[in-house]
Specification:
The chain is mostly helical. The protein has one domain. 61% of the residues lie in helices and 0% in strands. It contains 7 helices and no strands. The longest helix is centred in the first third of the chain and has 23 residues.
Amino acid sequence: MTVHSMETLLKSAETSMILGSISARLERSDEAPFWKQKSLPLCEAILSVLIPLREQHLLFDPEGNPHAELSSELFLRWCDLYSLKILAFTLAKSNELGKLSRTNITTDAYQPIDLEILGKYLSSYSVNLENEMVDFPKTNYNLHIGMASLITKILKGKI
């Protein structure tokens, strides 16, 4: 698969197709099994919320700025554990209010997003989903830096 086709998948494909492509690239890589096992669940957690946002034309970056399409650059911005935590709280608040909040997007056209997959993922890395101000272990943050590095190689076509 070329870099272009990965970008195409992010722009229009279903979650299962994108994850299948990422999984195939992970299997072809010479990365340690540890990183392969950790990276796919991260991708699934991110896609579980970005795909519904993409379908609603409500994609945004960690600073709350709107994005017209799901690109590898935008996807990689959400690989950071702190950013992913912000995303979870932003969408939880939006679901509660029935409209997208905490972003620079003004619209009333918001359909609540299922946060189950993202919530389970974040909980598995000791992210407190009740209180946004509670920090998580720095080792979990550092682990995500390693996963983001591998995912970057995959999305940029280096694997």
